[in-house]
Write a structure and sequence with these properties.
The chain is mainly alpha-helical and about 70 residues long. The protein is built from 3 helices and 2 strands, in the order αββαα. A hairpin with a 7-residue loop joins strand 1 and strand 2.
Length: about 70
């Protein structure tokens, strides 16, 4: 199921420039203050607590990862 969803998002993105459509959950535009992102899993859905669940703040503080928006 997950593989089919991922392929459908990629195909839709390549064809139209947007991954949204074809009865798939809406892939939200990244918005750092809101922190919403699409959770690619069998259950799917939009997640707003990814950073907290995966301790991204600790990674940023350690210097192992950097956030740069251009």
């Amino acid at each position: 199921i997950l593989g089919r969803k991922m392929r459908a998002y990629w195909i839709r993105f390549v064809r139209s420039g947007s991954p949204n459509g074809n009865r798939l959950p809406d892939w939200p535009r990244f918005d750092a203050p809101r922190g919403a992102l699409l959770s690619l899993s069998n259950s799917g859905g939009v997640s707003t607590d990814f950073s907290a669940r995966h301790r991204c703040g600790a990674l940023l503080e350690s210097g192992l990862i950097h956030v740069g928006m251009r």
